[in-house]
Design goal:
Oligomer: single chain
Helix content: 25-40%
Order of helices and strands: EEEHEHEHEHHHHEHEH
Structural class: alpha/beta
Largest sheet: 8 strands, mixed
Shape: globular
Number of helices: 9
Distance between the termini: 36 Å
Length: 316
């Protein structure tokens, strides 16, 4: 969710148009005074977010080595567009952005970092339909992967979740899946217009929605289709927030992370177990977190991209 209290500021950088009506903002790296960045960390944010709405991106951008830069990717589902979009469309647009930077820097490395629902996008890019046809990544990061379904049940007024699901199901059955559900159901998401089809994907009442990638109650067979299919040549780093306000208290984050890591390894994937972890004291977007918490995140991100540059995952 987009924070309302971000301070007004200007940000030097380069705006890339990687597709018609779609752009990526590449932060200027103060360390790169005479060096053109060779490697790129692509950042994709979550529901309601867009360019410069996640505050820690600037700190990561300014902490990267001189030959790295961070670019925030704008896709059709950014800001309020998520309600009429899909993970499939997101992945297709991300592939065009990756291709843009591959052509721009053919010798460089590209790491994709997802935040919140951007983690669903990252996982779909790696393992979803047509994943093998998309440009390869040199690394992938999931920061605060969380369950929209568990968050909805936890946040919505009693009975509203069930009512919303029933309404959306009736609409889909009537051939109206691309029509907008009543606004009262999306009030906790800022009242964003949302189709019945996308709402069922997020709410996932049968625990099989396309967006339902990180719920704590998914079966191993389901998770094997995501974490178990991460390409071995694309190392993964998973960072959970210890005080994530969108994750219900009953979720054991450490146990969930261990389970995901185990599935990646059993599937032949590569995961950085040293840098992956639950960041103590971190909230969902680290908006007002203490400096030491933000620095913990920044340190892990910088260390991971350096390891990816050094060939982490190669030969897997």
């Amino acid at each position: 969710m987009s924070p309302a209290n971000l301070s007004l500021s200007t940000h030097p950088g380069v705006l890339h148009r990687y597709a018609p009506k779609l752009v990526a903002f590449e932060h200027a790296n103060p360390a790169a005074t005479t060096t053109t960045p060779l490697n790129t960390l692509l950042f994709i944010s979550g529901l309601g977010d867009g360019l410069l709405t996640v505050p820690y991106t600037s700190r990561i951008a300014s902490s990267l080595p001189a030959h790295w830069s961070l670019a925030e990717v704008l896709i059709s589902s950014s800001y309020t567009g998520w309600g009429i979009s899909s993970l499939r469309q997101d992945a297709s647009e991300l592939a065009r952005c990756v291709s843009h930077f591959r052509q721009l820097r053919p010798q460089g490395k590209i790491v994709l970092m997802g935040h919140s629902t951007g983690c669903q996008d990252t996982m779909w890019y790696l393992t979803g339909t047509n994943s093998t046809s998309r440009p390869a990544l040199d690394g992938a990061m999931l920061q605060t992967p969380s369950s929209d379904r568990e968050a909805m049940v936890d946040m919505l007024a009693p009975g509203l979740y069930d009512e919303s699901v029933q309404t959306a199901r009736r609409m889909v059955e009537a051939g109206e899946g691309e029509e907008i559900i009543p606004r009262r159901f999306t009030a906790c998401f800022g009242g964003v217009p949302c189709t019945a089809r996308r709402w069922l994907s997020l709410a996932s009442p049968d625990k099989d929605g396309e967006d339902d990638r990180f719920s704590s109650d998914l079966r191993d067979e389901q998770l094997a289709e995501t974490f178990g299919r991460v390409p071995g040549a694309t190392p993964l780093c998973v960072l959970l927030s210890g005080e994530d306000e969108y994750t219900p208290r009953f979720v054991d984050k450490g146990a969930v992370l261990d389970r995901w890591i185990g599935l990646v390894k059993r599937g032949g994937g590569s995961v950085d177990e040293e840098l992956s972890g639950v960041i103590p004291g971190a909230t969902h977007s680290l908006i007002e977190d203490p400096d030491e918490v933000r620095e913990d995140l920044v340190r892990r991100v910088v260390s991971f991209v350096e390891r990816c540059e050094a060939g982490l995952g190669e030969g897997s």
